[in-house]
Design goal:
44% of the residues lie in helices and 8% in strands. It has 180 residues and is mainly alpha-helical. Strand 1 (147-153) and strand 2 form a beta hairpin. The longest helix has 23 residues, at 114-136.
Length: 180
Amino acid sequence: MSSPPIPIAIAKLKVQLETQLGWGSSETWSNYDVERLSEHIGQQTGVSLSVSTLKRVLGKVDSKSTPSLTTLNTLAQFLGYTDWRDFQLKTAETAAIPVEQPVPVSLVKKPQWIIPWLVLALLGIFLLGLVSFLLRRETPYSPTDFRFSSSTIRTRGLPNSVVFSYDATKARDDDSVFIS
């Protein structure tokens, strides 16, 4: 039996990705979800597929070209097949792909606890940063904290030599001392 045409096979591939990941329809995936998918694919197959390539395959970006064989092989391997040909052969005889009706955004119920917890978390981070900033403030240095002197060693010819003496022991460990 011949393999299904590329667009049908890609549609089957897309459905299998959605099923395997359990993230719901790829039509509702955010950029973050596609980035996570890219990372998962890279970890599992050792091949890195860009977010833009995955968006084209998933139909999130208009593209008239078909994905490269490398992209299709990588996605098939991620799904547990040997390569794209193995995927096409094993899915050619499967039943027609069920078409999922997208759920209108207005019907998608968002958890009500997210916003208060997000506000509370951001407030906590702000307060921690403020406390850290206030506790880290250190007193500025005084000119008497450091000692510097120089003396010229006279010689008959040029150039003269200069010896510098300094004491910067009161400098904090995370500071640097320069003589210019």
